[in-house]
Amino acid sequence: MSTPLKTKIQVPRSRDLEVDGVKYNRASSSRSSFEMFAWLFMRMSGVVLVVLVFGHLFVNLMVGEGVHAIDFGFVGGKWANPFWQVWDLLLLWLAMLHGTNGIRTIIDDYAGRSTTRFWLKVLLFVASAFVILLGTMVIFTFEPCPAGADPSLLASFCPAQ
Amino acid sequence: MANSSRGTLYRGQYGMWSWVAHRITGVAIFFFLLVHVLDTALVRVSPEAYNAVMATYKNPVMGLGEAGLVAAIVYHAFNGLRIILIDFWKGGTKNQKGLLWGVIALWVIVMIPFLIRHLSHVFGG
């Protein structure tokens, strides 16, 4: 038995094609599979992120002095180890892509006008690209023992200056 | 029956509210992540600049904020695994409500030791 629906179910806005106020949402034979890959990416990255995020939180907030131990020397000590460089790089990229795709979905759901959706997504993608590139640059160019810095603020392996 | 104003199998039920909570925690975590990458980037400015910003994370108000952030992350993580089970496990849809109770139970089991340890750090234990 079909049940009467009061609300019309709308076409997914991610593929909403509108020209001069007319909607052209006919099924096409050459549909992009982007949305399917985005859906799959959310699940695959999600599983990996559970491990990466829980490990990150455990080492930074639970071990030793917890949040009180976090300072420049702590970061220097962690990133001296390629293991944590790779861990944090994966965490950065997967979390940012997962989060960006989540916000993209939310924009498609709640922003009704196509121009609003467009500009919100431009803002989102620019901000995300900036943060991903900045974070990557920081992980690879970080100097744990900067010349001229106060030695008491640095990791214990830095030579006394 | 099935009048949209009276709720349906989904609307106003466990499925809808777990979805609402998943969205809200996801957005909150995303905006924290943007700020967190920017504050960590201060290690490229100077040790003093990074330590000054980290000092603000160590005050009790921020400590409570961190507890809220971790609470959001732990929910989002376990409910995300529940969504994966609903999508890929044959019995997932049928057991979605039971899985949500599993999410809540795991959340409590993880949050209790976390809160004891983190709050004792924050409040100088």
Write structural notes for this entry.
The complex is a heterodimer of chains A (161) and B (125). By secondary structure, chain A is an all-alpha fold. Chain A has a domain at 35-144: Up-down Bundle (3 helical TM bundles of succinate and fumarate reductases), CATH 1.20.1300. Chain A is built from four helices and two strands, in the order E-E-H-H-H-H. Chain A has a two-stranded antiparallel sheet with strand order 1-2. Chain A is elongated. The model of chain A has no long low-confidence stretch (mean pLDDT 87). With 125 residues, chain B is mainly α. Chain B has a single domain, classed as 3 helical TM bundles of succinate and fumarate reductases, CATH 1.20.1300.10. Chain B contains four helices and no strands. Chain B has helices at residues 14-40, 47-57, 60-88, 96-122. Chain B is elongated. The A-B interface holds A 3-7, 43, 46-47, 49-50, 53-54, 57, 61-62, 65-68, 70-73, 75-76, 92, 95-96, 99-100, 102-103, 106, 127, 131, 134-135, 137-138, 141-142, 146, 149-150, 153-154 and B 1-5, 23, 26-27, 29-30, 33-34, 37-38, 40-41, 43-44, 46-48, 50-51, 54, 57-58, 63, 66, 70, 73, 77, 80-81, 83-84, 87-88, 114, 117-118, 121-122. Chain B: Its main location: membrane. Chain B: This is Succinate dehydrogenase, cytochrome b556 subunit. Chain B: It holds the Pfam family Sdh_cyt.
Please tag this protein with its features.
heterodimer; A: 161 residues; mainly alpha; 3 helical TM bundles of succinate and fumarate reductases; two-stranded antiparallel sheet; 58% helix; B: 125 residues; 4 helices; 75% helix; 0% strand
